[in-house]
Structure formats: structure tokens, C-alpha cells
Amino acid sequence: MELFLPALAAILLFALTFTNGANDVSKAIATLAGAGVTTVQRAVLWGTIWTVAGSLFGLVWGHALIKNISSSIYVESHDFVLAVAVSVILAPALWVALATWRKWPVSTTHAVVGGLVGVGLIAYGANAIDWETLGKKIALPLLASPLMAIVLAYSLTPLLERVAHRFHADGDDDPLTEGARKPRLTVDHLHWLTSGLLSFSRGLNDTPKLIAITLPVLMLSPGEVPVWTYLWAATAMGAGSYLAGRRITKVLGFDVTKLSHAQGFAANLISTVLVLGASRLGLPVSTTHVSSSSIIGLGLVNKRGVNMKTVRAMVLAWIITLPAAALFAILSYSALAALTGSA
What sections of the protein cross the membrane (predicted)? Predict the structure, then answer.
């Protein structure tokens, strides 16, 4: 067991953070590609760089951010047996991987909560779930964030477009290429800046959270986080972002609505402000819901319209994420408990 548990934790953490990177890197950089500021591949590279930077910054700040998310789900603390600990990680990893393959932008946080609820129901019973806290602190903010993003995008996009045009947007400005032109501030520079900031923040916020649910496999508490977990998670999240991040990026960047440079920046700025503001207030909003909904809200203003087929598929994926992850967790726990005799 001395080597088995760290190896198992490493495999599970890699799977979870890889799928998180694959699905979530797009949320901060899809507008760069969709607005024609840069190519999909360069946008994904930019998001990957800043996501990894945010993940690694967790070594400095992450100990203050790591929380036992199960304390927000369960009425009282429980000692996780191995079948429970593995299922809580395996369920969201499987669901997010499936969603990425199907080109659905989903919330890893929602999937993690679903895994905890599913395992809690079968392992500890319905009375073990703190349904009131689940509704107030997790479900309500996650449901409210899309509405907030759509309303803000619809209301502020015309104003932000006018402000953006004052910067004389130039779509050829690309910080990943070398050139001899004299630097000047444009809306595209600001777009690169906000997307990098949002990618950094996502890496910083998601990495400690995903590491935290891996700790029970290692039989560690949130105060005993090995350095290798941050390095490993950053590597996996970066690999998932770069190798598999294009699928969702194309959906958000091109399939929801068509974006001009100014509109892409407006959607990204609104997402950045909402996510960072919510983090400051301690509200668990979903970057997935906020960024996707900002693009939808912009599409409602945009004369080019919104692709409702794509939007319906996205919203359906959001709705079924928690119950689907819960079902995956129940199935995983049942199988593992039968194999290990820990039921």
C-alpha cells in the first residue's frame, strides 16, 4: 500500500486534471479565436501557458485555497474508504471526458459535486447530504451565474463595443509572434490580457480544488499537501489543455454566434469581471457557465443571431452534469465496493 496509494492518486489526479484542462481551457480563450484575433491553436497555446502558470502559483497561494469540498456537501465529516475516495474522483473525470468528446462545455465543479452527492447517497444515505447548504451555497450561485452573464452581456456589449472601437482594434496584433512594428495599446491587446488573466485565475482556483478531493486516497488532510501534487496537476492540466482543448474552443468560438473583435473582447471582459468578482466574494460561480453565457448574451445583441441548436445542447449538458456525475459515482462505488468488500 505504501506505493500503491500514491500511484493510484497520481493516476486519478492526472485523469481529472487532464480532462479539466481539455474542457475548460476554452472558456477563457474561445473569443480570441472566434473573433479572428488569432488562430484556434495559438489561442489554446496562450490559454495553456497561463493555466499552467496559475496552477503552479498554487504552490505559493494554494494552501489558503484548498478546502475540503465535502464539508459543504455532507452534514458531518466522514472518513472516506478507498471505494468512496476513488469514486469521487473517477466520476467527474469520466463525465468531463465524455462531455469533451461530445463537444459539450461543462463545469468540472458541478461534476465533482455530483460525484460527492452520488457517493454520499449510496454510502451514507440521503440524510448525510446537507441539502440546504447544497442549494444555497452551490446550486443557486451556479444557476444564477448564467443569467447574470447573459443580462450583463446583453446590457453592456453596445457600450463596450463603442469603448473598444476607440482603441482602433487591430486584428494582426499577436503577442506570440515577433514583429518590428511599434507597440501600441489596442482592443486586441486588452483581449489577450483579459483572456490570460482569466486562464491564470482558472488554473489557480481549479487546481487546489481538484487536488483536495484526491487527498483522501493518500490518507492526507487539506493541511498536508505534497508539492508533487501541484507539479503533477499543472502538467496534466497543461497537457489536457494543449492536446485536447481545441474541440470545445471551436464550439464556443464559432458555433454559438459570430464575433467581431470588439464583441469578442466584450464577452471576455464580462466573463473575467464576473468570475474574479465572484471569487473575491467567495461565490462558487462556474467559469463554464459565465463564459458560455456571455457569448450567448452577446449573440442576442448581435444581428448575426445565436445558433439555438448549439445553445440547447450546451444547456442540456449543464442540467444533466450533476445527476450524470452522481450516477457515474454510484456505479463506480458499487463496483469498487463489491471488489474490495468495503460496502
Answer: 45-66, 78-98, 104-126, 138-157, 315-339
How many domains are contained in the chain?
1
Length of the chain equals 343
One-letter amino acid of 291: S
Strand residues in the chain grouped as ranges (E): none
The candidate with the shortest Cα–Cα distance to 216, out of 69, 58, 62, is 69
Q: Are 196 and 54 in contact (CB under 8 A)?
A: no
Residue 233 to residue 12: CA distance in whole angstroms: 10
Written as one string, the DSSP assignment of 197-220 is HHHHHHHHHHHHHHHHTTHHHHT-
Closest Cα partner for 334 from 141, 140, 91?
91
Give 121-175 pLDDT, tens digit per residue.
998 898 988 888 788 766 777 778 888 888 888 888 778 777 766 665 444 455 5
CA distance 132 to 73: 9
Q: Note the Cα 123 to chain centre separation in Å.
A: 27
Angle, helices 287-301 vs 26-34, to 10°: value is 30
The grid coordinates listed for 207 are 487546481
**How far is residue 218 CA from its own chain's centroid?**
24
Of the candidates 140, 146, 130, 285, the residue with the CA atom closest to the CA atom of residue 206: 285
The residue segments making up the domain with residue 265 are: 4-340
